[in-house]
Design brief:
heterodimer; A: about 110 residues; seven-stranded mixed sheet; B: about 110 residues; mainly beta; six-stranded mixed sheet; five-stranded antiparallel sheet
């Protein structure tokens, strides 16, 4: 029973070509998160939605944007991917932002 | 000082061994504590939440020491399938209605046949 789904699982894009990653959830959690994880590093929070309220981390580049059209879906837009943006992008959800987080399988982004 | 610190390992242990990991955190106001397991190139998966009184789930035991600000994970009778990176996660300060989840960099465990 998939709970947090991410598409695509693998994405190859060219330097500077916009890309959109998607996340959906069946848990009805009100908080959704986007993380970036590079090899041998901890996941790094990019931003999160608490219901419809968008919360950006101070060090998240402007190149990264997000949309949450409804409770179930959330998108990560990378407007002009650079080589340094190659990473695993993880979507997570939690109930009220205080309980355990559930992660999707991630999208592995390659930038050529 | 990092907000959440873990020994990166790797811990190489034989099958059947008992192994323990510690994780220290700096924010005394932290509310919630978790252990996640992450396999190579996969997403983190919740292993267990950590409760004040300590809790056990099969071969896994988690404990919280608020006075010393650390949590621990004990794995008994290690299996080959326990080989993974174990992430300590602590909730930090509250922002915009939600708590921030602070991740440690993980401890690598290799269980050897």
């Amino acid at each position: 029973d998939a709970m947090v789904i991410q598409n695509p699982r693998y994405q190859v894009t060219q330097f500077g070509k916009p890309v959109t990653l998607s996340c959906s959830q069946t848990l009805n959690h009100n908080v959704m998160y986007w993380y970036q994880q590079k090899s041998s590093q901890a996941p790094k929070l990019l931003f999160h939605y608490y219901d419809k309220d968008f919360n950006n981390e101070a060090d998240t580049p402007d190149n990264f944007q997000s949309r949450r059209p409804n409770t179930s879906f959330c998108f990560l837009d990378i407007r002009s991917p650079g080589l340094g943006d190659a990473a695993m992008y993880l979507c997570a959800t939690s109930r009220d932002g205080r309980y355990e987080q559930y992660f999707g399988p991630g999208t592995r982004l390659t930038v050529t | 000082r990092k907000e959440v610190e873990q020994d990166p390992g790797p811990f190489n242990v034989p099958e059947g061994a008992t192994v323990a990991f510690n994780c220290t955190y700096s924010n005394s106001a932290s509310q919630s504590f978790f252990w996640y397991r992450q396999d190579c190139r996969k997403e983190p998966k919740l292993l267990m939440s950590v409760y004040s009184s300590g809790n056990e789930d099969g071969r896994f035991t988690a404990q919280l020491n608020r006075a010393s600000q650390y949590i621990s994970l004990l794995i008994r009778d290690s299996k080959l399938s326990d080989s993974a990176t174990y992430l300590c996660v602590v909730t930090g300060g509250r922002t915009s209605g939600t708590y921030k989840y602070i991740f440690g960099t993980g401890t690598r465990l290799k269980v050897l046949a």
